[in-house]
Write a structure and sequence with these properties.
The complex is a heterodimer of chains A (about 80) and B (about 375). Chain A has about 80 residues and is of the alpha+beta class. Chain A has two helices and five strands, in the order βαβαβββ. Helix content of chain A is about 20%, strand content about 30%. Chain B is built from 14 helices and 13 strands. Chain B has an eight-stranded mixed sheet with strand order 3-2-1-4-5-6-7-8, sandwiched between helices. Chain B has a five-stranded parallel sheet with strand order 9-13-12-10-11. In chain B, about 45% of the residues are buried. Classes of the chains: A alpha+beta (about 80), B alpha/beta (about 375).
């Protein structure tokens, strides 16, 4: 099963709000593939969550998991 | 049925039993709410930072619910472009101070509560004194500098922080710095997500916002304040709720402590002042106004750089300049013999952040930012 990748806020303008990607072993590997596909993403700041839990460092990925990329929001 | 008990516990709020019951009957009667919850609301002191798109609905609902003391701080004045989302203000209020008008309006909603108005910018000088006086802080501001200042001081003083923000059609909110999640040593704070204020983020003025969005998020934030005070329901403690207006989809994310963030909290008042004083929003930055910018553009000693993305409107042709987007300006800054470089963007926010970044990286050049951006320049000069 592929991995679901969700892009929030202005990141959705780069990657679309939701895409499927082939399974890779870790978040770092996924980021490398995403940067190739969406070079603009590389310059962006975001936090990553895997299955709705924020991760501070690299994490392993599994079949069917959902990775979300959340950029900072400041509007009020 | 509640009269005697309620009036007796309302402290500085002096209402007749009858009036009190009349005003709050619809929530007093709720299961799990009742007199005790109303009492807690009456004793609570809540500071709302920012009387803008998020602040307006927050203030309205907190006042209506009977929060006993509400502080509102904002240094901005009402402008016509605020009115589509900042629903406490009317056309007649244009030019007036937001905090003053907001304070007056919520006092009209509920004359029994205590409203403290601060028509100032929240800054390193006033933030500690102010936050100390309240039980809960609500962040409805519109820029990262103030948001980080509020975060750091709440961490420092141990105050729960209800955080919310919007971007285009999406909003988010969470409760920070309240209780540690199971297995963690401290509560989550904003620096756990992003250690330092990001640069190059567009604000509402630049990226737009549908008026109802801050309304929705502000009301959800007010809900969290009421939950924190009364103990009803489940607080969004360290959980970030994301809301998409276009699809009505929500997504929840469990935040976690990032140990690296501990080092970023200022350790003393001096630290705090040093960290935030060099910041764009404290006014210490080299900013120039539209008239000065115009003069400079007519001489040749200064290099002007547009830090917007290529093609962003309005296109300017009336003075010579380069275009290097804020995101890559550190890498792409050209070799120049100019001693001064002035950066500009649409509203002045991205250029201010870029100027701050470049000042650190290239000490031999003076960087300036056009205050108010092209919006102000074009409206004043042309």
């Amino acid at each position: 099963m592929p991995i679901n990748v969700l892009f929030f806020g202005p990141l959705a303008e780069i990657g679309g709000s939701r895409i499927e990607m082939p399974l890779v072993a870790s978040v770092l590997e996924l980021e490398a593939v995403l940067y190739e596909k969406f070079p603009q993403l590389k310059e962006k700041k975001y936090v990553v969550s895997v299955n709705k839990k924020m991760i501070a460092e690299n994490a392993q990925l599994h079949d069917g998991c959902t990775v979300a990329l959340l950029p900072p929001f400041s509007g009020g | 049925m509640y009269g005697g008990a309620v009036a007796a516990i309302f402290g500085r709020i002096t209402m007749s039993h009858h009036d009190l019951y009349a005003r709050y009957q619809r929530q007093l009667g709720l299961k799990g709410f009742g007199v005790e919850a109303q009492q807690k609301l009456a004793r609570a002191r809540v500071l709302v930072a920012g009387a803008g798109g998020l602040g307006c609905p927050l203030l309205q609902y907190l006042a209506a619910a009977g929060v006993g003391c509400i502080g509102v701080i904002d240094d901005d004045r009402v402008s016509v472009s605020n009115l589509h989302r900042q629903v406490l203000f009317s056309t007649a209020d244009i030019g007036e101070q937001k905090a003053v008008i907001a304070g007056r309006k919520i006092k009209q909603i509920n004359p029994e509560i205590d409203v403290q108005v601060y028509a100032d910018r929240l800054n390193v000088e006033n933030v500690i004194g102010l936050v100390s006086e309240y039980d809960i802080v609500v962040d409805g501001t519109d820029n990262f500098s103030t948001r980080y200042l509020i975060n750091d001081v709440c961490v420092w003083l141990g105050k729960p922080l209800v955080y919310g923000a919007v971007s285009q059609f999406e909003g988010q909110l969470t409760v920070l710095n309240w209780k540690a999640n199971p297995g963690e040593l401290r509560p989550v704070q904003y620096r756990d997500l992003f250690l330092e204020p990001p640069s190059g983020i567009r604000n509402c003025e630049e990226e737009g916002v549908l008026g109802v969005l801050p309304g929705l998020i502000g009301v959800l934030m007010a809900t969290e304040v009421i939950k924190l005070i009364t103990g009803i329901g489940e607080v969004l403690n360290g959980r970030l709720l994301l809301y998409n207006l276009l699809t009505h989809q929500t997504y929840e994310m469990a935040l976690s402590v990032n140990e690296a963030a501990n080092a970023f909290i200022p350790k003393s008042t001096a630290d705090l002042k040093a960290y935030f004083t060099e910041d764009a929003c404290s006014g210490a930055l080299n900013e120039i106004d539209a008239a000065t910018f115009d003069k400079w553009m007519k001489s040749s000693g200064v290099l002007a750089i547009d830090v917007r993305e290529p093609g962003e409107a309005p296109i300017v042709t009336s003075f010579p300049h380069m275009n290097i987007p804020a995101g890559c300006i550190e890498q792409q800054l050209p070799l120049t013999d100019k001693k001064s470089i002035v950066l500009f963007c649409k509203s002045g926010q991205r250029s201010a952040e870029a100027a701050k970044k470049l000042t650190k990286a290239f000490a031999h050049i003076d960087f300036f930012s056009l205050r108010g951006g092209l919006d102000q320049y074009l409206s004043k000069i042309q």
